[in-house]
Amino acid sequence: MNTYSSKLVENAVSELSRLPGIGKKTALRLALHLLKKDKAIAENLGTAIIEMRENIQFCKECHNISDSEVCEICGNQKRDKDTICVVEDVRDVMAIENTGQYNGVYHILGGIISPMEGIGPNDITVDSLVNRVSAGNAKEVVMALSTTIEGDTTNFYIYKKLKDKEIKITTIARGISVGDELEYADEITLGRSIINRTPFESTL
To answer: What is the domain class of 78-203 according to CATH?
Structure first.
């Protein structure tokens, strides 16, 4: 049974509820909120989303989201280009940056190996990481994936790909509880884990 008095509102709620974490009730609340506000607010929101979707780029070096070919982090000459921190996605970069304890650059895999979800090594950016290291663009690779079975599997796969290279391979300290996702760790704990990283071999 249709509970909406407006097809326009129903369509808006339907689209908003497609977003992760947004149910029908929240979507309806958001739609009604936009109706109450000045028309320019809805227009600005729509424009911002469309411009983001059409114009966003991915850094050719680390795969971070960017407004240009190279992201602000990779383009910053003050960053330590000798250290590459390997993370699952953009949210992990944001979490680590918020700690203020890391001054290297990143490599975003775009996922982790998960056979249950049909994600294999070829579905993430491991090859481009190996190419970066092979080109002599780093002295240390820091594994900063979530401490889950999938994260550990991906860590080990990358380690096998890099272990014969002349490079130090480390992992963040286990201040992050096993099973935890990086983005949900508090900044102090995550910051300490980055500072107190250990050789990856010691975790095997």
So the answer is: alpha beta
